[in-house]
Each structure stands twice: as C-alpha cells, then as structure tokens.
Structure of Prephenate dehydrogenase:
Amino acid sequence: MPHTRVIEQLKDNLQTAYRKSIDADGKLDELKKAGHVKFNTIFTQEEGFSTNSNRFRPYVQELADELDKMPTDAEKLPAALEKFVRKLGVLLQTLQAFKEQSK
C-alpha cells in the first residue's frame, strides 16, 4: 500500500496524543476536584468529533477507531485521511494549548 508511511506517521502522532491526553485528563481531574471544570464537552461536532466528553482520552479513542477502520480503497482513502488529519490536528493543538495554560 503506497500510504503505509503516512499511516505509520499518523499512528505515531496518535500515540503522542494518547500520552498527552493522560496528562491532560489528570490535570482536568485536579481542576474538577477544585471546582474549576464547568464544561460538558471539549470538542463540538463542528470540529468533526462524534464523541462528547469532558476528557481527552475518549477523543483519542475515537481517532484510534477511525484509524483502524481507515479505507484501503484508493478513491476513499484521501478523503478519510484529510478528515482524520484535521481532527488529529485539532486534538494535538488543543492538548498543547491546555498544557501551556495549565502551567
């Protein structure tokens, strides 16, 4: 498959998102105990996610499931990759912004 390297890179980035989500969810737990977490979801459907959660790991899981189900059809793959990369980018950017603001 010609997209093997792309898929492997996406897996690496998803692993990075998973590790960051563990740290971020821990910080969110601390903030919730202190009474500071007052939201129901991190992302909206406009950002492409179907998951509704106030923690990051369910969004990482959604992406992991999508990556497992990535089409191999050359016609469908580019659109699926574009959607996946957009969502992964939003997730990584949000995780990074959260990390910087919660220092």
User: Anything to note?
Assistant: The chain has three helices and no strands. The chain has one domain: 2-102.
